[in-house]
Amino acid sequence: MKKQILITACSLEVGGIERSLVGLLNAFDYEKYDVDVLLFSQKGEFLPLVTGGCNFLPEIPQCATLLEGIKTTLLKGHVLLALSRILSKVAMTVKYRKSEYNYDAKVFAYLQSNWDKSVHLMPKLKKQYDACLSFMWPHHFAAFNVEAKKKIAWIHTDYTKAALDNKKDEKIWDMFHHIAAVSDECGKVFCKLYPSLSEKVVTVENILDSSFVRSQAEEFVPESMTDDCIKILTVGRMCYPKAFDRIVDICAILKEKEIPFRWYALGYGTDEEAVKRKAEEKGVTDRMIFLGKQINPYPFMKTCDIYAQPSRYEGKAVTVREAQMLCRPVLITDFATARGQVREGFDALIVPQSEQSVAEAVERLINDKNERDRLSENCRKSDYSNTSEVIKIYSLIGEE
Question: Which domain covers residue 49, as residue numbers?
Answer without folding.
Answer: 3-209+387-398
